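Chapter review: from sequence to fold.
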Amino acid sequence: MSGDNAPKEIRFEGAGVSPGIARGRVHVARDELEEVVRYRIAPSQVTDEIARFETALIQTRMQILQMQQRIAESIAMWNGFSRKSPRGMPRP
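The token string follows.
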């Protein structure tokens, strides 16, 4: 292959669904909201905006807790699987 047509290597890091290294095609999804929209509010709207912000914080915290739970369950499942692995299979 010529240098111009050679495939590029790009490395991604993140929360994997299983241990190890993968090689293959990827589809990268990007969030459509890359720019924060700024707008002014009237002084009478401040209380409502603070409440909206606090609601968003609570929802975010709940999402983080759910992800932590799923990760903990995944780790527990993997640990149980690796203890029962046939001889010769690598253990994490």
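Two observations follow directly from the output. DSSP finds one helix and no strands in the chain. Residues 9 and 88 are 31 Å apart (CA to CA).
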